[in-house]
Amino acid sequence: MGIRRIGTAFFAIGLIFAVILGVLGGSDLFEIWAVALFMWLLFAFGLIAGFLNLAKEDAEDLLYTSAVLLLAAFAAIELSRIDFFSPYVVGAAKGALAFVFPAALVIGAKRIWD
To answer: Does residue 78 contact residue 4 with C-beta atoms inside 8 Å?
Structure first.
């Protein structure tokens, strides 16, 4: 398994992990400091995913995917107007944003640099 596959798998697993942690963070199960810690961990994992996905062949696909995920996360925050979904949907969107944003930032910077 090459570094290319490891980076793609890390991105996929990290995104699933981000949504789950975001949903849990949106509920009242954790204290506010634990939710902040989750978000910083997701940010760090996003940076790692970005550095693992520096192959030129994958960069364009991952940037498109990241753009769609970021737009979907921002749109999901609009669902917070529905009271039942509010903490869970917004938590999942924030988790996805905390993970995808740094990965897209690193990949985009690398694309511009090249």
So the answer is: no
Element (H, E) at 99: helix 86-113
Which helix or strand (DSSP H or E) is residue 101 part of? helix 86-113
Provide the 3-class DSSP secondary structure of residue 28.
coil
What pLDDT digit, counting tens, does each position of 50-92 carry? 888 766 776 777 778 888 888 888 777 777 777 766 777 778 8
| DSSP state letters, 59-75 | HHHHHHHHHHHHHHHHH
Whole-angstrom Cα distance, residue 13 to residue 9?
A: 6
What is the rounded CA–CA span in Å between residue 103 and residue 66? Answer: 8
Give dist(CA 97, CA 59) in Å, integer. Answer: 18
Amino acid in the structure at residue 76 = A
Q: What is the pTM of this model?
A: 0.76
Q: How many CA atoms lie within 13 A of 41 on its CB side?
A: 14
AA identity, residue 106? V
